[in-house]
Amino acid sequence: MSPIARIQAFAVPVAPGLMLAATIAAAAAFLGAHYGAPVMLFALLLGMAFNFLHEEGPCRAGIDLASKFVLRLGVGLLGIRIAMDDMAQIGITGAAVLVGLIALTIATGFIIAPLFRRQWRFALLTGGAVAICGASAALAIAAVIPHNDKTERNTLFTVMAVTALSTVAMVAYPLLFQSVGFSELQQGFLIGATIHDVAQVVGAGFSVSDQTGEMATITKLFRVAMLPVVLIAIVLVLRMTPVGAGQGRIALLPWFMVLFLALVALGSAVDLPPVLVAKVDTISRACLITAIAALGVKTSLKALRAVGSGHLFIVVIQTLALLGFALLALLSFGLFAPH
Q1: Residues 43, 296: contact at Cβ < 8 Å?
Q2: 251 pLDDT band (50/70/90 cuts)?
Q3: Angle value at C-alpha 127, between 45 and 249, nearest 5 degrees
Q4: Cα angle 184, 108, 250; round to 5
């Protein structure tokens, strides 16, 4: 078979589904820009409206590809945002606090999930999403944990919940931190340490001041940089448990995390042109929105309604716990206090 024939054999079955997911993503991006609302949420809801196309017909293969390969590619390309020189501005104490916040938030999920009769997969999905970088973390964690019949539904719910809570936090947290009397740097650190999604962190930070926005962005990117560390830890634990053993040998570093780390190393070693960084970041975001649209197509509204209120309570409790831990750490260590 010639190379062209091989490409055609691969492309023809997946083209309808990929085009559907990309079209939904484009529509979501337009609506998000027009109404100033979260694009991920639009992609998810619009995708769910086309669930019938995944149940049968020519779109199934492409939708599956978008929800897996395109998703992983988008996560891998996130590394272009991060340069270790920027992370140094947080300081050793600040970095240690952020690592502690991530660990405590994920641990909170494992503690409270059994109280609501939820499994460890959901606790890990939501804990990682709240602790690290919202929807992107949920998608990345979902890509490495063993799947069951509820994984895609729970992933979609997690994306929806953390996106909605991030939007609320974007408005509420700056008002809260200003009312308490924190300095601009402290507000930036808290915003970056507690809001789930990068876009909302940027919006909240720069609504206070440029200094707050810059600190919030750097703090948030440090949390994003912890994503491969958390994924490696998850894989190592799964390798040692019966749950992971049933999945065959799990790669210690999936290819998309290798890509993530390679881009971080590249951005730290050389000054990449801002235009290039912006382009790759745009591609990454487009991939993630397309993947969310595909996950939406794969999930019926009926299945999402079946999750119950316990799912929401867990995400809200984790969000409030992260906020409480961050406030306690800031006050305890006196981080970025004005002299």
Answers
A1: yes
A2: low
A3: 95
A4: 105
Cα–Cα distance measured from residue 144 to residue 244, given in angstroms and rounded to the nearest whole number: 10
Our CA dihedral for 49, 54, 56, 62, rounded to 10 degrees, sits at 140
**Number of neighbours of residue 120 by Cβ within 10 angstroms:** 15
| Ramachandran assignment for 250, one of left (phi > 0), alpha (psi -120 to 50 degrees), beta (any other) | beta
CA distance 128 to 65: 24
- Compute the chain's Rg from CA coordinates: 20
Per this entry, what is the length of the chain?
339
pLDDT in tens, 175-222: 999 999 999 999 999 999 999 988 889 889 999 999 999 999 999 999
Contact by Cβ (8 Å): 195, 169:
yes
Q: Residue type for 70, please?
A: V
Check: CB of residue 226 under 8 Å from CB of residue 99.
yes
Separation CA 147–CA 247 (nearest Å):
9
